[in-house]
Amino acid sequence: MSIWFAPFTLDEVNARGATCANGHLGMELIEIGEDYLRGRMPVDPRTRQPAGALHGGVSVAFAETLASWSAAHVVDPAKYHCVGQEINANHVRAVTGGWVYGEARPLHLGRTTQVWEIRITNEEGKLVCISRMTAAVLSKPSEYK
Questions:
Q1: Sequence-separated (6 or more) residues with CB below 8 Å from residue 76
Q2: Total number of domains constituting the chain
């Protein structure tokens, strides 16, 4: 059974992220599953730190992007919006080139909070970073000013 509130497409989400940090860092969503969202990001000059490996902060940005898109698509967007409340990450393997892949899956989908686990792997499927993000589910005001 799908966790998503309503159907959405990779094209529409990738288009919305094209002109912000997601697009600038080369992040793209590549798969929508029944209970997960999968993306990829290049390891290139935009995403590496000075020593040549994938920047840990960029891994966290990738994890938060996957979890935030996921959180937003689980709720009714006419009534709620989600914001990141806390994120943590453990970096377990360096990557110096190619692609990394991330997959966000829910650990908890509550009325006021959601908890997402994000696993980032290299092209061989080896774990690079494990992250967990808590999202707050907020009621939308009737009008934004």
A1: 5
A2: 1
Residues 6+ apart with CB under 8 A from 44: 26, 97
| Local structure of 73: helix, strand or coil | helix
CATH number for the domain including 43?
3.10.129.10
Whole-number Cα distances in Å, 64 to 1, 102, 145: 24, 10, 27
The answer to whether residue 144 is domain-embedded is: no
pLDDT of amino acid 9:
97
pTM attached to this predicted model: 0.95
Check if the beta carbon of residue 67 is closer than 8 Å to that of residue 118: yes
Region 37-44 average pLDDT: 98
Residue 90 identity (one-letter amino acid): N
Q: The domain containing residue 52 runs over which residues?
A: 10-139
Instruction: Determine the residue type at 22.
Output: N
Q: List, by residue number, the catalytic residues.
A: 64
